[in-house]
Amino acid sequence: MAASLVKRLLCVEDKVFLVTGGAAGVGAGIVRGLLNENARHVAFLDVADREGSALEAELITKFGALRAKFIKCDISDEAQLTAAYKQVLDKYRRLDAVINNAAVLSIDDRNVKRMVDINFTATVTSTMKALDIMGANKGGNGGTIINMSSLLALNLGSHLPVYAATKTAVLQFSIAMGAEKLYSESKVRVITVCLGPTDTAILHRSNLQNFDKDSAEPIASRVSVRQRVGSAVSGILEVIDQGKSGSTWIVKDDQKAYEITDKLSQAFEVLSDI
């Protein structure tokens, strides 16, 4: 058996996953991909009730009852997020991995707070809840947290400044939470994926849940879509297989995932000498 397959079996098969922003786009692709890799159960959170319920019905038909569970949840509301985590534990009695994928995008000032609340604050809150449940130092069995950042977190410029800032914050937070000392205590890997532009509704006018319809068309015209959802999902599954805690990976341009942890460390060393 190939080493990569062994790792995937260890990291996905028979495990219970929670995915935020899982009703459509990359999130829905991740949910499908995990079940195809024989995850025991996948719970996914989203505000999109119709899309989430339809996906749950599709997955139950394909994979059987209890394998997939949609939970309507606005993750920016901590009470709702806490209730969703409780629902997963009540239903499945355990949690092995969390993928913090949910994000919203806008180019104007009207949705700034919501971008910060969902893209960063909710990622922090979800990460801390996952660590409380899965952390070996909290009575758990260890696990994995994947936090989704963006290529924009690695580039200086004025393009989508608030969105880029939230994703930069996710990157910094996840690197810190994945540090060796914390991992040695919790046995929970915290890994960052910087995702390149992907052909999902977040870039198109139809995605009215995520941003104001007047700003959607300029976003779609300004962002070059270079990656299929399937490619993004394959890359994220590779990271689940291969990633060490504290590592950072890029998934872009329909390529295999590749690690940039050492390059980031070198860059931070340069900055710290200033």
From TrEMBL:
Family annotation (SUPFAM superfamilies): NAD(P)-binding Rossmann-fold domains
Name under which the protein is recorded: Alcohol dehydrogenase
GO molecular function: oxidoreductase activity, acting on the CH-OH group of donors, NAD or NADP as acceptor
Phylogenetic lineage: Eukaryota, Metazoa, Ecdysozoa, Arthropoda, Hexapoda
Pfam family, one: adh_short
GO cellular component: cytoplasm
UniProt superkingdom: Eukaryota
Keyword list, A-Z: Oxidoreductase
InterPro entries in UniProt: NAD(P)-bd_dom_sf, Sc_DH/Rdtase_CS, SDR_fam
Similarity comment: family membership: Belongs to the short-chain dehydrogenases/reductases (SDR) family.
